[in-house]
Write a structure and sequence with these properties.
6-stranded mixed barrel, OB fold (Dihydrolipoamide Acetyltransferase, E2P), 15 helices, 34 strands, Dna-directed Rna Polymerase Ii 140kd Polypeptide, Chain: B, Domain 6, 5-stranded mixed sheet, single chain
Length: 600
């Protein structure tokens, strides 16, 4: 007897588990059972698990009987002529969806040529082993698996033409690439997903070589002339939203240019971009601290008498200004209402982003890197035929990561550019390397993709031949302009008196335990002392009881709360965080005594 479980609940038992499992599969293929039902025969315990719940990963496969697939040429012709649809094939029991459990009982062939009488299913295409984003990587089967995954993830972070109506949208933190292109080396999935309608990269000329060490550790070098002509240039959009909130007692916010009698009024210079309605005018260039939307709010706290005398309550200033490090141009203004019926004002800022040192670029093979230098046009190496690369990529990134597909795409891109055609790099079905090499020779190039190069600075011929070609390169959304942060002195936290945290709050850069160790190793003791006194404080301490004493500057006296006035009080330099810890220890009822000794 075999136990039967439905969605992990025991519902009964059957005599012959194998016959029962086959019967359930037949019923499903005939349409008597839902196509969402899957059955799994556990060989060790001879128990049967039937699953029909949601959230399972399932994939379609062609059913095989007696070594022959049920999908025939006739079906394919009917599909082509639109006489049949995908759902018809599923209903007719030609294609079925398997989950991870039922897949354990199946023997799946990759190719029709591999089929034997033992096989139960056939892959629709060998490339279905990967997801959509991974299938966009050309020559993916020549790649190391981890790099293939990184390559698919990188494509999701690339800047491109994400929506045709981007100029009407108020999306958070988006970028639009100015001149996005369709890749020369593409896969069948590019056609299936209509990639030409939302591309996210550009075909660049790439040379693999070293250049003064500025591209070591995955750095890439960009040709300054290419950047000046618009290479990888993008626009960054960010919205600012403001609501007119309603408060108790009929009070509410008001979006307008604040009057001078408003509490917290800034200067007229700060409000210079606002129009009569209190909203910035389009195409105004704003910088950090500039007011974008003027707003006044009712006072925070009303006493019982002032609640009835509204004229006595002075409104407070609550305008929205740009935070530290933000700048841009007011691109688009929308005045509307939110769900509660309150007035909602949205201002979209735009900022043109030209590639600079520190911006992140990547190929589709997980070879990501940061711009190390923008090379002047006259200094860039050039080929014997006068080709100047847009990007110079380090050769050391290939050997350890084993991304052969990166090299193949260079050859494919070079061939596609010269032959004027797209090169197919679909997973497991790509054009063969030998064919690409032969066609490259026919175009008048060396079959290995290398060319004679000359140094742009000296004009001398380089000793080694340089591997050069065309590659689809992506600019990622991690731009140095969004992350760059520095500060000298600035705001501190109320509780610990240490610098605030984060770029938006003009925060400090934390020096952690490991950074401290490097300073110690270098013997930079004065620098270390300087870094660790951000919350330095001088505190009076009673020498008798070791408690923090009181300094009364008003009456010009110092005394201890425990010992009174006739005691010696010494000034001690310490971190405010330590003083805070002493206070917190006192709240636990513990006596933190400071035993003072002289330095000398």
């Amino acid at each position: 007897m075999a136990e039967v479980y439905l969605n992990s609940r025991f519902i009964g038992s059957v005599e012959d588990a194998t016959v029962f499992a086959e019967d359930v599969k037949d019923l499903r293929r005939k349409g008597a059972l839902s196509e969402n039902v899957n059955i799994f025969l556990e060989p060790a315990t001879k128990s049967i698990h039937v699953s029909s719940d949601e959230g399972r990963a399932r994939r379609p496969l062609i059913i095989v009987k007696e070594g022959k697939p049920l999908l025939t040429e006739r079906h394919l012709k009917q599909l082509k002529d639109a006489e049949l649809s995908w759902s018809d094939l599923v209903k007719q029991g030609i294609i079925e969806y398997l989950d991870t459990g039922e897949e354990e009982n199946a023997l799946i062939a990759y190719d029709e040529a591999d089929l034997t009488s033992e096989h139960t299913h056939l892959e629709i295409t060998p490339g279905s082993i990967s997801g959509v984003a991974t299938a966009l990587v050309p020559f993916g089967n020549y790649n190391q698996s981890s790099r293939l995954i990184i390559g698919s993830k990188n494509q999701k972070q690339a800047l491109g033409f994400y929506a045709a109506n981007y100029h009407l949208r108020m999306d958070m933190d988006t970028s639009v690439l100015h001149y996005s292109q369709l890749p020369i080396v593409k896969t069948k999935i590019h056609d299936v997903t209509n990639y030409e309608e939302h591309p996210s990269g550009q075909n660049m000329t790439l040379a693999i070589m070293c250049y003064d060490g500025y591209n070591m550790e995955d750095g890439v070098l960009l040709n300054q002339a290419s950047v000046d002509r618009g290479l990888a240039r993008s626009t960054y959009f960010r919205p600012i939203n403001v609501e007119e909130l309603r408060y108790s007692g009929g009070l509410m916010d008001e979006i307008s240019v604040p009057d001078k009698d408003v509490k917290g009024y800034r200067s007229e210079h700060d409000y210079r971009f606002l129009e009569g309605d209190g909203i910035i005018h389009p195409e105004a260039k704003v910088d950090e601290g500039n007011v974008v939307i003027g707003r006044t709010s009712p006072p925070r706290f009303l006493s019982s008498l002032e609640e009835y005398n509204l004229s006595a309550a002075i409104r407070r200033e609550s305008s929205i200004s740009l935070k530290h490090g933000e700048k841009g141009v007011a691109d688009f203004v929308v005045i509307t209402e939110n769900e509660e019926g309150n007035k909602l004002v949205q201002v979209r800022l735009r900022d043109e982003r030209v590639p600079e040192i520190g911006d992140k670029f990547t190929s589709r093979h997980g070879q990501k890197g940061v711009v190390g230098m923008l090379v002047n046009f006259g200094d860039v190496p050039f080929s014997a035929s006068g080709i100047v690369p847009d990007v110079i990529f380090t050769p050391h990134g290939i050997s350890t990561r084993m991304t052969v597909s990166h090299l193949l795409e260079l050859i494919g891109g070079k061939l596609g550019a010269m032959a004027g055609r797209y090169v197919d790099g679909t997973l497991f079905e790509a054009e063969k390397e030998d064919a690409l090499r032969k066609e490259l020779v026919e175009c008048g190039f060396r079959e290995d993709g290398t060319e004679v190069f000359y140094d742009g600075r000296t004009g001398k011929r380089m000793l080694a031949k340089i591997f050069v070609g065309n590659m689809y390169y992506l600019r990622l959304r991690h731009m140095v302009a969004n992350k760059m942060q520095s500060r000298a002195r600035g705001p501190i936290q109320l509780l610990t008196r240490q610098p605030t945290e984060g770029k938006a709050k003009e925060g400090g850069l934390r020096l952690g335990e490991m950074e401290k160790d490097t300073f110690i190793a270098h013997g930079a003791s004065l620098l270390l002392k300087e870094r660790f006194d951000s919350d330095k404080i001088i505190i009076p301490v009673c020498e008798k009881c070791g408690q923090v004493a009181v300094e009364d500057n008003y009456k010009n006296r110092r005394y201890c709360l425990l010992c009174g006035e006739d005691i010696t009080v010494s000034d001690i330099e310490m971190s405010y965080a330590f003083k805070l810890m002493l206070d917190e220890i006192k709240t636990l009822g513990i006596y933190p005594q400071l035993n003072l000794k002289t330095k000398y």
